[in-house]
């Protein structure tokens, strides 16, 4: 099997599995007795480790149930906390956000009276016009790197401009943590979301970094855990596994980025040479493992099915909803033509990817694309 969907999720690291198993029996870390205190100590250590690794203070680390949850808590919570004090219902967001942010922003507009100023990407998927950030808003939100194209966004400039306007900025760094040099305090963000399963931790474990002020208004109500931002008994084993995965991912980051970027660049070059009319979607800066390509005229569903039958697992660039493929909102925002975007293929390399994997795909892809183009022309 050749697994090339590391941006969707990447296999758990052994260090994370070991930490998870070691603490699987941990009790409620809030318990006022010795087993509770022992669980609390493991949680505190995970919090400290993550804070140190991501340039935050331990109190700023909030454990959540996913990256999606971290995004929701931050964007909706900051809007609710700031709307009145800021004297504006304006929200600034980009059109290429992951649905965890996009749907939250749309819901703020539909149910809480927000007026959204949208930032548009250029043809390569980068947000270059950040002028919407210069007008004060209740909250602004922007991703560090795009999950589909891998395009790395100018988040530091965005944070400076948002700060100059007095606007809190949420950064969705779910794709960036483990690959980019993410330092919370240096980033200038007010809140930042990460997700363990993107860097070799368990699925269902997210991180929200949240400064002491301004603090998001609680979106979930309950027992007050995690500064009241994410109430509910914390999963100690998941927190320990997340910290273990992050430590290892960051220790390997530079060497692994160099290995992946080289492998990915050769991969793209060889595909372009072997498959006629291949379009490379995103120029630098982009994440090292992302190869986003478009094969105009090819039918996404056929590409994925044919690849799967050959033991190659990848993702389409189009969105599949109820069995119908349509252009993804990211490619649409970039102004990609429907015919090109419907033939988009996202191949994302990761820790387990080898040169032999790349060889196999390069050998099989020309025939796959030829057949998918035939299917597209029927
Ligand atoms: N944000 C981005 C950019 C993502 O790529 C993803 C996951 O695909 C998420 C948010 C959601 O993370 P999770 O799967 O942990 O809910």
UniProtKB/TrEMBL annotation:
Pfam families: Aminotran_5 (PF00266)
Entry keyword set: Iron, Iron-sulfur, Metal-binding, Pyridoxal phosphate, Transferase
Domain Aminotransferase class V: 2-361
GO molecular function: cysteine desulfurase activity; iron-sulfur cluster binding; metal ion binding
Gene3D superfamilies: 1.10.260.50, Aspartate Aminotransferase, domain 1, Type I PLP-dependent aspartate aminotransferase-like (Major domain)
Catalytic activity, reaction form: (sulfur carrier)-H + L-cysteine = (sulfur carrier)-SH + L-alanine
Required cofactor(s): pyridoxal 5'-phosphate
Domain of life: Bacteria
Name recorded for this polypeptide: Cysteine desulfurase
Homology family: Belongs to the class-V pyridoxal-phosphate-dependent aminotransferase family. NifS/IscS subfamily.
